[in-house]
# Entry
Amino acid sequence: MCRKFLGAMSAVCLLNVGSPALADPVTLPDLLIGVTQGFLEFTVEDYLATSQTEGRYEIEVNKLDPRMYMPACDKELTATLESPAKPIGRVTVKVRCDGASPWTVFVPAQVRLFREVVTTTRPLKRAGIIEPSDVMLRERDISLINQGYLTTVDEAIGQKLVRPMVADQVITLVHLEQAEVVRKGDQVVITARSGTLSVRMPGEALSNGGLNEQIRVKNLNSQRVIKAQVMAPGQVEVSM
# Structure
């Protein structure tokens, strides 16, 4: 993935870094922001495609110290995702020069991913059973939701609330008494992910699990039993 990105960015890097018009040392903030923005756009697009996640995203690269200076780089800059494993939320991109005078800069950024999630249409009482008129889909930034969210109203209807809720509030797993989206015996798709590379294989859930919970899953190809994270109904993920 990094090589594909470098190919797309080579013209930018050569114009900005290898140009003889730039003295040594050169100021880098604008170049680093541009490289980081392009890298994150490529990485997020690849993540959404490989994980089959629908949504729109916004990328905001943090401002850098305008007094930052580094030796001019005589090679293409490389960019990699330093943290976290998924390019969502607060991220850090490592931009590196492997030239005659090597250097590394860590650039912070924010990636907001907007998806249609289940929210309340009115205030709801604790211990109430969710009715179809109580919920609807609205677009929200899921990078701010740490407790699991629902993407279809059917996942919420019939569930019992364990705490009161206000109108227009995102329903998360902590609000529901029964929130299993994968149940023992369900056929699931296991996604083994390493960075932006992923491999899919059939599996069988060996226990119940809610969104973002770890459950035991049997890989039907290898017959191995592994632990995987529930990502959606019928979808689990394991890091390689």
Q: What stands out?
A: The chain has three domains: 2-113, 114-180, 182-239. The two ends are 16 Å apart (CA to CA). The chain is about 15% helix and 40% strand. The first helix runs from residue 2 to 17.
